[in-house]
Design a protein that fits this description.
heterodimer; A: 4-stranded antiparallel beta sheet; 11 strands; about 0% helix; B: mainly beta; 5-stranded antiparallel beta sheet
């Protein structure tokens, strides 16, 4: 079974802190994604990566950056956390684009910025 | 830009009932459509994936259909159980492996 793990289930940070969210997948997937999920707004794509050291902006990249130094690991970085970044963050992975790219999700990280 | 709509937003049914959840999308140029289940405070669990060339997929009590030309998919749940209570989301995949998600239907199955 595909396993996608995220470094923390719950995280509380202060405004202005630098925050790292880590995601690891064990299925040798090329694609990895970071989403945030907010009530009334659904899932929104922040960044995705289709290969090591490759990244592409999603719909809401402002205030975030990402790092993918190894195929299995995709990190989301909040350079200076703000209260409007309080959210549920979900990581996902899939095979390369095309007719078969089933996405598998991690358990999520509930981030609160005070 | 792809838009995905799920109706109804919430549904409450008695245990044992068969039910249908709906998903519609605006751009029929999709690679696949995926149905997920999400329990409160948890991540998404993949239920079924339908390729663009397929019409339906089945897994246990779940059956998902896809009509690309009309931009619609349905998720049929047979003999519903209280354990089926969750939010169900559909997602359509376009090029570059990116997906667009609906807002979900929250299902409550009453004992």
């Amino acid at each position: 079974d595909v396993k996608v793990t995220q470094s923390s289930r719950y995280l509380v940070k202060r405004t202005g802190e630098k925050v790292f969210l880590e995601c690891v997948q064990d299925m040798d997937h090329e694609n990895m994604f970071w989403y945030r999920q907010d009530p009334g707004l659904g899932l929104r794509l922040i960044y995705f990566s289709y290969d090591v050291k490759m990244k592409e902006k999603g719909d809401i990249p402002e205030g975030y950056s990402v790092s993918r130094e190894k195929k299995e690991r995709f990190s989301l970085i909040l350079e200076s956390a703000s209260t409007n970044q309080t959210s549920m963050y979900l990581c996902a992975s899939s095979f390369p684009s095309g007719w078969y790219n089933e996405q598998f999700f991690g358990p999520g990280t509930r981030l609160t910025v005070l | 830009k792809q838009e995905v709509t799920q109706i109804p937003a919430a549904l409450s049914v008695p245990e044992g009932e068969n039910l249908v959840l709906n998903c519609s999308f605006t751009d029929s140029a999709i690679y696949n459509l995926q149905w997920f289940r999400q329990d409160p405070g948890k991540g998404l669990t993949s239920l079924l994936l339908i390729q663009s060339s397929q019409r339906e997929q089945t897994s246990g009590r779940l059956n998902a259909s896809l009509d690309k030309s009309s931009g619609r998919s349905t998720l049929y749940i047979a003999a519903s159980q209280p354990g089926d209570s969750a939010t169900y989301l559909c997602a359509v995949a376009g090029n570059a492996g990116k997906s667009t998600f609906g807002d979900g239907t929250t299902l409550t199955v009453k004992p």
